Amino acid sequence: ETGVTQTPRHLVMGMTNKKSLKCEQHLGHNAMYWYKQSAKKPLELMFVYSLEERVENNSVPSRFSPECPNSSHLFLHLHTLQPEDSALYLCASSQDRGEAFFGQGTRLTVV
Amino acid sequence: GEDVEQSLFLSVREGDSSVINCTYTDSSSTYLYWYKQEPGAGLQLLTYIFSNMDMKQDQRLTVLLNKKDKHLSLRIADTQTGDSAIYFCAESTRGSSYKLIFGSGTRLLVRP
Predict the structure, then answer these.
(1) In angstroms, rounded to a whole number, what is the distance separating the alpha carbons of residues B16 and B79?
(2) Does B35 touch chain A (CB under 8 A)?
(3) Does the pLDDT of residue B99 top 80, yes or no?
(4) Which residues of A touch B102 (CB under 8 A)?
(5) What's the pLDDT at B28?
(6) Each residue of A34-78: pLDDT tens digit?
(7) What is the spatial distance between Cα B112 and Cα B94, in angstroms, rounded to a whole number?
(8) Contact B42/B29 with Cβ under 8 angstroms?
(9) Which residue of B has its CA nearest to A3?
(10) What angle do CA A29, A31, A34 make, to 5 degrees?
């Protein structure tokens, strides 16, 4: 148990659906992250929030929309995804720019 | 640009030592990390080392850093079947960015 909880653990969605991934951290950290892990590719940083303000957005398509309502919660809203978006989506948190603690991930399959 | 490279696969016998290697290109890296990922799980932080250190030991884990060659290694002593996982090397430069740069991961298989 890392103190970072992601739900759901698995998600199958159609290309026309809208769904959201949720992340909650119980570590009192002030920064939260979304990473994408695809087969045979390094982890890709998608978004970073520090003190609830987005500080990094690594050229992610607009069909991925993050939301950080407070320092403990982070969402990733998904709509009109493509099959190539199927991946493991990992949430992480850190205190300032310190070491990141990861959740278990959401395994997303787009059909 | 920033890049972190690792070999893809390592197989060892139970009880032997494992050495997982990593090279990086960013000479301004401040912190270097080792993460472990078991099947179906997220990444677990194993250990990290500051760039002004050469070595760090934590129980069965030994991290060696050669800053001149930009080479990082993780040695696991007395490797157990429970150590089978993917090991990721990552580096960051704390002063400027929240970004962790990860390698592609080394899959460690421990044979009984």
Answers:
(1) 6
(2) yes
(3) no
(4) 42-43
(5) 78
(6) 999 998 778 889 999 988 888 777 789 999 999 999 999 999 999
(7) 40
(8) no
(9) B44
(10) 120
